[in-house]
Amino acid sequence: MSVKQTVQATRSTSGDGTAVIDAPGVGYYVHIYDGAMIQASPGDDDCVVTLKSGSDAIFKAALSGGVYGVVGLPEMVCGENEAVSVNLSDTADVDVTISYAVRSIISVPH
After folding, report:
1. Is the pTM of this model over 0.90?
2. Would you state the CATH architecture of domain 5-104?
3. Residue 86: C-alpha distances to residues 2, 31, 43, 109 (Å)
């Protein structure tokens, strides 16, 4: 079990970006505890932000270009050995912060 970590990323171009959390390796998965998304430059176009585990969408949020606000991320579990990436539907400056840990898929009895 890894220590809880926090990663911050800024995206500004539409489409899939590079991984914000790398794939942890066979037998491991990313456990997202929480996080936040914010449109860094209000006044940009409206944008749908999609958090992905591998190619699967695990969370979507619509960010309005005319509104200051933060979208909180819920606790989520990613697929085995899948990277976490952020997809933007449009060009906009979006900041994402994620608290996570890498976990083993093998349970060890206590």
Report:
1. no
2. Sandwich (2.60)
3. 22, 16, 20, 35
